[in-house]
Write a structure and sequence with these properties.
This protein is of the alpha/beta class. The chain has helices at 9-14, 19-22, 40-52, 68-75, 90-99, 138-143, 161-178, and strands at residues 28-35, 55-61, 84-87, 103-107, 114-115, 125-130, 146-149. Helix content is 36%, strand content 20%. Helix 3 packs parallel to helix 4 (68-75) and helix 3 (40-52) runs parallel beside helix 7 (161-178).
Length: 180
């Protein structure tokens, strides 16, 4: 009898904690701050990433122009498993995190930015990702401990914000899980 190569939904569910226990389990000590990210699909993608890596929370900063319907479609209902906060000020949110001793990394190509893969991420890390067109704001860059970037070998200078976030988040979460 041939068995399917792919895992079924039931088999996948067996590897997960009970739904009622999941929300109270410790999360990876990592926060994503979205600095004026306006595209519903990008925000939804970040919610899915936050769930996939079981991070502490996402803070969505700036004026919300996001369609709730598009957000739900993009996040595929994983928002119910993710702590999502909304803030009208990236600077205030980052200052609050600084006061709580978080280390802040902005993902932005800057004069002093370093390759994201060469950073040793400490516990209580914040990753700041910026607006689809303008990137991370100068105010957020000023409050950051370090600026990090993804080396680009091709002719382009940037990636979609959710793609860049996925790349950096995977490395950061891996390092933080190894420290547990």
């Amino acid at each position: 009898m041939q068995q399917n190569i792919q895992l079924s939904k039931t088999e996948l569910r067996e590897t997960k904690p009970a739904r009622d226990k999941y929300l109270t389990q410790p999360k990876t000590p990592l926060i994503l701050v979205l600095d004026h990210v306006t595209n519903s699909y990008n925000v939804g993608s970040f919610i899915r990433l936050a769930d996939a890596f079981s991070i502490e929370k996402i803070i969505v900063c700036g004026e919300l122009t996001i369609s709730d319907k598009k957000l739900k479609k993009a996040s595929r209902n994983e928002a119910k498993w993710v702590n999502v906060e909304y803030s009208d000020s990236t600077s205030k949110s980052l200052q609050t995190l600084l006061d709580k001793n978080y280390t802040i990394y902005s993902v932005e190509l800057c004069h002093d930015s370093v390759d994201y893969s060469e950073v040793n991420y400490p516990s209580s890390t914040v990753l700041v990702l910026g607006n689809e067109r303008k990137g991370v704001s100068e105010a957020a860059l000023t409050l950051s401990h370090q600026h990090i970037h993804i080396p680009m070998s091709g002719m382009g200078n940037s990636l979609n914000v959710s793609t860049a976030g996925a790349i950096v988040l995977a490395e950061c979460a891996k390092q933080l899980r190894q420290k547990k």
